[in-house]
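re: that chain from earlier
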Amino acid sequence: MHINNLANNTCFKGINPLNMFYNSNANLPTLIIESGVTLGRAHEANKKGGKIEANERLVEQGTSAVVWIYGVQFLKNIGEKIGEKILKRNDFNFDVGFDYARNPLESLYKPALKFKAANILLSTAIATFFIGFVLPKINHFITNKTIKKEEKQKTTQKYITLEEFKNKPKDISFTSLFYNAANLIENNSTARLLITDTGVVGGRFHNARNKFEKIECLFRDIASIYFYLFSTKHVVKLLDKLTNNTDISPKALDEIVKMLQKNIGEEKTISNRDFLNSAISSINTEDLRKIEELFNNRKTVTLKEFKKAFRGFEDKADLMSKLQPLLGSKEILTKTQAQDILKNGWTSDAQFLHNLTNAATNGAYNKKERFVSAKQIDKIRESADDFVRQIYKVAQKKKCDIDVDLIKKVAKNNTIKSFLYYCTGTAISIYALGFLIPKVQYMIRRKLTNNDEFVGIKNYN
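^ sequence. v structure.
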């Protein structure tokens, strides 16, 4: 696909490859990274430790990738089939997270809710146990068999045999179920990897065959966590800051462009200062003080409380409170929503905010059985103001007024830049994970052992 086809008009129709980077449960970005890492680590291992170490890295990295990406979901699906038989229910299509503004759990069948949370956590524990404790033993067994086979074929060549590995199965127990942890695991691939990695680091360290392999495993796995989970976002954030770009999904950006187009009009222009003031309005100091006083360190207030404190905003407050389901049979407002009610800007319109958030969450925001955190909603909300400021800065630099054509052009450029930035971040992650970290790992090996031989097949005191 040609890069310019990413954003060939205002409304990004069809499949946009940038969307995969904004879907927290998307597997493709992880699959791309894991493919590069698996090949890179096997290549570096073959250069230093030889064929046996390269085979171990292929088995370890390739199998771990499959379990990371698909294993938890596969196990969860099996658990849900069991749950359907036990609970006589076939509907587990709901989220188990909640916060101060949204709680899908209130109206759910409690046994099904508890079963799903337990099923997610148990599925994750099984996958983690397999990668951290079972897979290393399988790898060691394969290596041991390979060495014995080569000893028979080459009787003149003597190898140092492996120590027998210990088989100490560990019991996995849960002291309690945390619904939000289960929700993160199910709906966020980053959280799933982070939680799985935590167990994997311990498991691989425990199963390492000698002290030098333990050191290598500990360095490699801990150093890898940052580049697996966080480095891409940090690269994108840095590049966005350097180029006045907005980190926003194409679907959300589409809603913002449509809203601005509607308010400006197809044939009209507006000065950059009037555009900024019309789209983003501020709250006077007295109203800000009253909001702080009303919330008084609380995260939410009831709609009734807000109406009592702020007369004349009843209609807008009613619309804003409907942006989330009732919480404990009460209509509520968050502090961000309360501030938006008092603003007159285009980006604070309740219907626009509903459309924006629903688009950015792929429809989850519109469904009461889905959980979208208040933190995520606020981030989406802030992105609208950020994009308005981006347009303002572009117009300032060009010393021109703002019209729909300029907005479309900025949106198109934003999408292209974001795609390139995420690709750059992904490439950096692959290089660091597949090549840089292994190179440092082998530098540590040489420093500790004075050679490049695979430490897994050596006997050390």
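The chain has 16 helices and four strands.
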